[in-house]
Amino acid sequence: MPSSHHQNTECVPRLSASQSRRAFLCQSGGGLGGIALASMLAQETARASSTTGGVLSAPHHPARAKRVVQLFMAGAASHLDLWDFKPALIKHHGEPSDFGEHVEAFQNGLGPWKKPVWDFKAYGASGKMISEPVAPLGEVIDDMAFIHNLVGKTGVHSQATYLQATGFDRPGFPGMGCWVSYGLGSMNDNLPTFVSLPDHRGFGSNGAKNWASAFLPAMHQGTIIRPGTPNPIVDLNPPKSARFITPASENAAHSVLARLNAAHAADRDGDTRLEARIKSYELAARMQLAAPEALDISKEPAYIKRLYGLAPEGKKWPSEINAAEEADYFGRKCLAARRLLERGVRFVQIWSGNDNSFPRRNWDSHEDVERDHGPLANGMAIGTAALINDLKERGMLEDTIILWTTEFGRMPSTQGTTGRDHNPYVFTNWLAGGGIKGGVTHGESDEWGYKPLDRRNPTEVYDIHATILHLLGIDHERLTFRKDSIDRRLTDVHGHVIEELLA
Amino acid sequence: MSQFVRGVLLSLVCLSLIGTADGAEPDAADSWWSFQPLREPDVPELSLFSGGDTGDGREFTAIDRFIIAAQREKGLTLSPEADRRTLIRRLYFDLTGLPPLPEEVEAFVLDSDPDAYGKLVEQLLESPRYGERWARHWLDVVHYGETHGYDKDKPRPNAYPYRDYVIRAFNEDRPYARFVQEQLAGDVLWPHTVDGIVATGFIAAGPWDFIGHAEVPEEKIDGKVARHLDRDDMVTTTMNAFCSLTVQCAQCHHHKRDPVSMKDYYALQAVFAAIDRADREYDADPETARRRLALKKVIADLEAVIKELEASIESNKTEEIRSMEDKIAAFEKSLAKYREIEGKTRSERYGYHSQVASNQNVEKWVQVDLGRVMAVDRVALFGADEYGFADFGFPHRFRVEVSQTSDVGGDDSELLLDGSGDFPRPGASPVVIEGRGAKGRYVRITATKLWNRRQQGQAETKDWIFALSEIAVVAEGVAVSLSPEVEALDSIEAGKRWGKANVIDGIYGRYPLAERTPQGIVAWLEEDAEGQQRRAMEAMVAERDAALRARMPETLRRHGAVREQLVGARKDLGRLPEPAKVYAGTVHTGSGAFKGRGHLGGRPRPIHVLRRGDVTRPGELVRPATVAGIVPGLPAEFDLAEDHVESDRRVALAKWITHPENTLTWRSIVNRVWHYHFGRGIVDTPNDFGRLGSTPSHPELLDWLAVEFRDGGGSMKDLHRLILKSAVYKQTSRNRAEDAEIDGSNQFLWRQNRRRLEAEAIRDAVMAVAGKLDLTMYGPSFMDFVIEKPEHSPHYEYHKADPNDPATHRRSIYRFLVRSQPQPFMDTLDCADPSELVDKRGETNTALQALAMLNNMYVVRMAEFFAERVRLEEDSVRRAFALALSRQPTAEEHRTLAAYAEAHGLSATCRLIFNLNEFSFVD
What we know:
CATH class of the largest domain in chain A: Alpha Beta
Helix content of chain B: 40-55%
Distance between the termini of chain B: 54 Å
Largest interface: A-B, 101 and 114 residues
CATH architecture of the domain at 344-513 in chain B: Sandwich
Shape of chain A: globular
CATH architecture of the largest domain in chain A: 3-Layer(aba) Sandwich
Structural class of chain B: alpha+beta
Radius of gyration of chain B: 35 Å
Order of helices and strands of chain A: HHEEHEEEHHEEEHHHHEHEEEEEHEE
Largest sheet of chain B: 7 strands, antiparallel
Strand content of chain A: 5-15%
Number of helices of chain A: 11
Radius of gyration of chain A: 24 Å
CATH superfamily of the domain at 344-513 in chain B: Galactose-binding domain-like
Oligomer: heterodimer
């Protein structure tokens, strides 16, 4: 949409949600606004209560939740330094590590036992111990449910990222958000159903394939949104260089297109695709208005910006990684997520950390846990705590599931002098909101945080996925898509709903 | 199944958990349609039918008779033939993926030749555009991509020769059996042909786990998993693409529905057990290939002779000569310290590497602590060896300071080098700075003009750094043993490779310092120890040679002569043109974790049945074999000698697939071709002819086509002719309510299917009608993105491409295909995902597609070019319409568009035309 900033005094801020949207459309001036406005506002009341496009006509069982936020820490965040308190590591810090068995480490990071980098403190009624950088989450600790005995399959970033994101350790499978979109459809008619908010410094392992629809229809693919950029969705607006496109030409183009396409379709009855394509242009016009409005945080009150850890616009940051900057980045994504969820987006994925390059801006702390994990974890915790609190205040936490995950954990032994190697043998996830029982822990790791305490009964990603689908009203064994002889599902042939985590 | 067992399962288990956990051994004698022998059915006699089908003067082909016979049973009738405007647009897109020119449309409409249609079919089949169009279909099926996928999604710059091969094979109408055989084993069946080699790019077309191979050795579990998944992809692609048999379902249990056992599946893995995905060298010129092969043989023979002569010399050496040789060996050992340490013995410790700065004039420093205040004689600095540079990161300008206190630069500091001018690039030589006895405890090197971080031969980046391999300080006559407390303003501390402590580890570049003792360094710096030793050794060698010559003159003369021949042969080899490369399935000879099987003479890896698909639970060892019962009368196990080589396995599989009696191969390919002509196959699951796939809508027609195709020599173009000349193909796509009532999905083809164009056809058509399409064929792919941060996982930045760059105006088949970051425009338009085996393109209608067609910078720019193309026409709107849609606008359409053009300009009008439904659909 061409930017055209008429100053219209009739557009008054500080109105109700629907009124302020009207005001926004008004401010956005010409372009497609005229066409889209009527149909958009007409649908306003229906928005977020009706759903369309899902393969399930009705949920398999009553749903506890409608929406999901998946927080993905790319690079493998250390369970030992954030969530999973291990006094034995403090006691035996610096002693040669002894796992009691042969260990295949990714980079042979099997130096002495290494104590957590930070102190742990108990929070909330549950008394759950978490570490200093994630202390902001102490405030909502009783909403969170921890799984400390999650196991992976390999210590290779790419396979492990695929596994957490798609349920398979290879390319070619749809992301969890795609399955949710495929099953339940959309709750809005002007924004994507599944949104991915990548780290602005780069994608994690496997890039966009972690939210690709693979064999599912492309409409279920995660849409990349980059809040705060001129084109937050690819091709949302014409390129700036195309001066021949004006609000007036755009407006007229849509009506001419609709007219000529309708005549074309009328002459070719019985082909619903032609109608669908005409409708897709109306949808596109609505999205051009809805997306910038959804991502415009300028009207958010100051206390909300503070809550999310946002720095003033345009702040200059030092070149070294630091917590305030990380909080600003992550907080902006969390705030964008809340605004998208409010507007009927069903699944939002927020990424922290880029691919494993240098200088590190990801969680793959082979060299120095303190240097990377400190700022990243603190930034993540500030934004996440804000999101949970904010959703709660708006009555949305009860039907929004939050999942915190990463590709695997890190070893209790030292790599080099200050780092930790990959640990696919055990790591931590936590869940909150949408039907999750807060303040509980399901499954423990052993005294070192090396493997599950009960090695015969670990938790797997399938169980996490099954539980989330369950809360959304989906039986994970019955949401399938046939592809080359196989009725594919998110949980492969595995997965058990973790009853203990259900509220 | 316990939780623990579940925990170690590989994630590939198929549907239909019917029966016992592992399933029973499948029954070889199977009654399923696709496993039945291929027999040519009788063509239904159309004269047996009454009614109006034959009443309109159309000629009916054998295909029509099968179709009409089936329609009759349902009470359906064929639709009338489409008009010529519709037919030419349909044929053009179908065979070439491009629209016809308005002049071509008019000529065809007016052509009075009764065989005008037949002539057009021939013309289009002869067009090079045909191979480009149909190669793309095949590349979908084999999931061809040009990056690895997974993490570190690096480009495969040598993948394209396979894509070119597929285009060539279609254009030259390669017989299908040969097409199959070339892709699996062309390197052995046609060893001295380009196509024979590059066709094996098929085996390597799919994704590859770079980390799982290049960074994890095969002995580790993660390495085993990666290699298992790699073979799985080769087997799956081969059997799905050529046979439409989903053998991959038997990875963890016997196929539950089709006659494929786990043993069959792993026996197929054994076919590829020696193969990896890697660049393979080849000669595009067969004469060069022959010369190279001959020279290699000559060299090997000469080397054998030399070996013999040397053995004879060795056995004739006297005690005196042996003692000289011991001395020479001692010299060599000593000199080796100076010599380059290659490959695996190279130190992993490269040196110090600062954090990356975004501009060149940021100061960065690193300093060493001498432990106490000393008089400094000299400071030697060594560049780091990385990315093809011996002075990687060595700053252009720098200061050297010594300071008595930690306040370097303060009052107690002395400047040894002020770094006011650019320093010459030192290369591999040390830079020695005189200390002049300056007193200090801390020695600091401060880079004031940073070096641009890049690879040798690559363009400059935006990253500026300071790196050093080694700092050696000589003070008070000795090289100082430096304290481990190295300090730096910043440092990337990346594994062993880069760390500030590495500047005092005694290793510089690829070399160790002469001795790691302080005295050794002094000696090394002050004397030319290397030169002295070398001269002494050379004298000793001359003395030894004289002694040898005196003792066995004839043997030595021959040795000398043969060596001369050898040198000559090697020179000749070196003079041959550089071999070309193709990324292919090949026996790889590598280093590090990714060794391949080349160093074992290409001996295949032992393949075991893996219980539950788990690499830690190997069972029975399997021999290379395939699935029984598919070629009636042939056993599953290949007839291979005990001492067979790996390529025999691939040849055996290729021959089995192309066996005339194979019940799957011929049906599979004719069904695919039918699918692309009608939008749906006779079997609607082109990759799966098993029980979980669809059954054929016209089984006899499928068999008839398969037999015609096979017995006609496997000519793809003949198959097109058969189909395109049928009345079924030529009928209109218009709806008819009464037939739609009976068969709404048009399974029985009572009309042609209206087709939505694929992403490639849309992009190519946009550029073609804009007059910008560059029809240059073959060669490296164009990149419609900018690669940033190539060192690790490259960032493919599509939005930074320049739509004005003519290099990006080639046909979409030549687009560089990135797996991890698909091109957003193409991806949105349901382009094939090279991580998936795509037998059918998806077809969706989304708001993001509308946005892409409206706003993508290429479409928008092309609209402007399109406007330029028609601006000077008498009636620009009419011309634009005809170019884009292959017909003239109606009066109403013309009026509407002309009014729009009047108000908003021609570019906006052209953009609008690109967005019409009619542009993206073919009737």
